Amino acid sequence: MTKARAERKLAREAGAKTQVTTSAEGPLSQVDQEWQALPGIEIPPRLARRKRLNALLGPEFSTPYDILRSRTVRQMKEAGWTRVAVTSPNTKCGKSTISMNLALSLARYGQFRIILMDFDLRRPALAKILDYRAAPDIEGLLHPGSRLSDYAVRYGPNLAICANRVAVRHSAELLLSHDTEASLDRIEAEWQPDIMIFDTPPMQGNDDNLGFFGRIDCALIVAAAGSTTIEQVDRCEREVGKLTNVLGTILNKCRFPDTSADYDAAYY
Ligand SMILES: Nc1ncnc2c1ncn2[C@@H]1O[C@H](COP(=O)(O)OP(=O)(O)OP(=O)(O)O)[C@@H](O)[C@H]1O
Ligand SMILES: [Mg+2]
Prior knowledge:
CATH class: Alpha Beta
Mean pLDDT: 92
Low-confidence stretches: 262-268
Largest sheet: 7 strands, mixed
Radius of gyration: 18 Å
Strand content: 5-15%
Distance between the termini: 44 Å
Structural class: alpha/beta
Number of domains: 1
Number of strands: 7
Shape: globular
Bound molecules: adenosine-5'-triphosphate, magnesium ion
CATH superfamily: P-loop containing nucleotide triphosphate hydrolases
């Protein structure tokens, strides 16, 4: 696993990765032209509010995600990582919501290309969050010869989202397959994302992440106040730590936010 990660890092460094270009700066790079050609989606403010896409609702709401974004970028860039999974010990902790918000906050940075993938193959959620009824069947993307452009939609110039319409049978086997590995490598080489975010299932109750986490660089763990126990967090951190690098643990759904720091969002 460590060897595979190091090989991926070398391959990335060897590839001539281009910076994001915008039309205001002159002609778009070839890669950015491909990104521009992806079908675009909109996220209306009402949907953003209903689905808790706080990263889109202004600084009062987006600050926690912006802090998460900055920490994530710093740690991943320092280590030369590009692939981060979002997981949790138990269900309904907010993984999909946080994956979306992290991607949206990163995209707002403007300097990075982000690919967000729904890799909770048993219970896909991003299509529902986006109210994207025509979402494709992501399984096809993980087979040889597939093209990301047939599966992804673009939000803004630099966020590609691969949502999924239907649950995938034999998801653990698919995630472990060489086809999946080759597809991810191909997507990374062709589309040159700075960060790929994978919304994944909880660690409890299935084995999907056990194989797949060997193919990513790091993971964020989401715990939910009121539903995740300390023991579950400890066990999850140990388990994920054996499979990949733990970037951090997020406590979500806190009803009483910590306002001890006197520079919370309201201050600004
Ligand atoms: N900070 C929050 N406060 C309150 N509700 C939240 C918060 N974050 C997410 N939710 C809500 O909790 C529910 C579960 O969120 P989400 O689908 O993101 O969790 P999940 O961990 O991906 O679930 P699953 O285990 O089914 O994949 C959703 O209704 C979502 O809107
Ligand atoms: Mg989910």
